[in-house]
Design brief:
By secondary structure, the protein is α/β, with parallel strands linked by helices. It is 27% helix and 18% strand. 43% of the residues are buried.
Length: 253
């Protein structure tokens, strides 16, 4: 790993522009080096933040982007729980990402077949290594320390072979999902967590500073050769005692 950086912002509103600038800078770097930019997206509050900030300024060129999803609920695209559906409405419809560059699940398939089909799509789109190597993965963290659809003490945390795994017993509804596995997450060139709000303070401390008992899934994200950023707001960082970077609006990483 190239090193972990923990950046604390006064508020989520201050954090958003820095996240968008990080996406743009990693896109420019990837396109200059490899001719395209591969991005893995997560749902939750990231959808609104990215959709708002990436459209400022309005001249973002996404014509050489390839976008996948770090996890997805097994629901139709028009369902409010569909991560792809949310991004389609709020972001994809407003930028020039080619339709062929958006790697979405086939939610009509049973969950096991859906995971296998999505793994094939990712492998075909990013075939260079045993596991797809994304230029940037954007992750969130739940109040239980989960990330993607990798939940505490779940057997999927031990998966070492699959690219995408099915889950039909998610403790957070809906129960059926597909998720990237830890080997894929840890193969990325850059992984960036975004965590905001005081409800995350106690779990964030245990993820970043350690805890008694099994490590939370988010703490198992340690890129093998890539960068790791944690972008958090002051309420989420309230319990941290480790050294952090204190940044403000407009900061660049």
């Amino acid at each position: 790993m190239a090193g972990r950086r923990v950046a604390v912002f006064p508020s989520s509103e201050d954090l958003g522009p820095t996240l968008a600038e990080l996406v743009r800078s990693r896109a420019d770097r990837a396109i200059a080096s490899r001719g395209r930019f591969t991005l893995g997206l997560s749902g939750g509050s990231l959808v609104s933040m990215l959709s708002r900030e990436l459209l400022v300024p309005p001249d973002l060129d996404c014509s050489r982007w390839v976008v996948g999803f770090c996890d997805e609920r097994l629901v139709p695209v028009d369902h409010p729980e569909s991560t792809y559906g949310q991004y389609k409405n709020k972001l994809f419809s407003k930028v020039n990402i080619p339709e062929s560059g958006i790697l979405a699940i086939d939610s009509s398939l049973p969950v096991k077949e859906c995971a296998e089909d999505y793994a094939r799509k990712l492998k075909e789109a990013i075939p260079e290594d045993d596991f797809p190597v994304f230029d940037l993965l954007l992750l969130g963290m739940g109040p239980d320390g989960h990330t993607c659809s990798l939940f505490p003490e779940h057997p999927l945390l031990e998966e070492t072979q699959k690219i995408v795994a099915p889950i039909d017993d998610s403790p957070k509804p809906p129960p059926q999902r597909v998720t990237m596995t830890l080997p894929v997450v840890n193969s990325a060139r850059c992984v960036t967590f975004v965590s905001t709000g005081g409800s995350k303070a106690s779990v964030l401390k245990e993820v970043l500073e350690g805890r008694k008992g099994p490590a939370f899934p988010a703490a198992l994200v340690v890129p093998t050769n890539g960068e790791l950023f944690w972008l958090v707001d002051a309420p989420a960082a309230a319990s941290l005692t480790i050294q952090v970077e204190r940044l403000g609006l407009g900061a660049k990483l």
